[in-house]
Amino acid sequence: MNNLSLIRGIHATLGRLAPYTVARRMRRQFMTPRNLPPREWELPLLASAERITLRFGLSALRWGSGPTVLLMHGWEGRPTQFAHLIESLVKAGYGVVALEGPAHGRSPGHEASVVLFARALLEAAGELPPLEAVIGHSMGGASALLASQMGLRARALVSISAPSRILGPLRSFARFMGLPPKAQAHFVRLVEQHAGIPAAHLDVKRYQLDMPGLVVHAVDDPVVPPDEARVIHEAWFDSQLLCLDRGGHQRLLADPGLIGAVLELLSQVGEPRTAMATIAR
């Protein structure tokens, strides 16, 4: 028996005997991210960044100048995971600000959620010039969509590898950890209490998405099912859908097709730039 099977067996047994206690422990685990170090290929971009501190100690990295594009990474992610996209945006004449989400990097906090990420985007937007675009990956994409319902405004919004609703990932995590049904129900309620919003409300089918947008997903994503992208696209009347054949959950951030589609969207919603002529088609 491997360690995961053993852990799931323990959770299944304890979840029947003490469902609330196990659910409380799983809630803390679900909302407490690890701070993972950058990979070697991220280091040059990290070294070239200007570190800034926004409201309430929120940490961010900045590159370039020009119309502002705001980026939000995913769960246990980092701004420099967008390295190839950031380099292309700066070359095209944009200024990029990439947040370190709550409880990530140097930003304060010990726990994180899609709601806290969305609030961080709102706080950042309140200190920055009018935003040309907001781009989010995975949970960062879900938080950008949610933030748009909380007052975030930009010329365009890009969602990459994001789930269309939060209830699905919550239930998947609970099942993966071996929680029996009663403990699963307690777990979902505890997450809702800490997030401050019912999970059923965090669903793009309930949203009014009125900004031009782009939805990107790779068909071989092992973390978020690719069908989620189509659900988001269908709920978002002014969005374009880009499905990549390969890229998994994170590698697609460096895909030339994704980068080209983002730059094309920005050229459609913003002012023409001479730098756009350098973009490879």
TrEMBL record:
- Asked whether the UniProt record includes Hydrolase among its keywords, one would answer yes
Key words of the record: Hydrolase
At the top level, the lineage of the source is Bacteria
By its UniProt entry, which InterPro entries does this protein fall under? AB_hydrolase_1, AB_hydrolase_fold, AB_hydrolase_sf
Report one GO cellular component: membrane
Any one Gene Ontology molecular-function term assigned to this protein's record: hydrolase activity
Keyword Nucleotide-binding attributed: no
User: Short name of one Pfam family for this protein?
Assistant: Abhydrolase_6
Q: Which residues form the AB hydrolase-1 domain?
A: 69-187
Q: Which SUPFAM superfamilies match?
A: alpha/beta-Hydrolases (SSF53474)
What PANTHER family does the database record attribute to this sequence?
Answer: HYDROLASE, PUTATIVE (AFU_ORTHOLOGUE AFUA_2G14860)-RELATED, MONOACYLGLYCEROL LIPASE
Q: What is this protein called?
A: Probable hydrolase
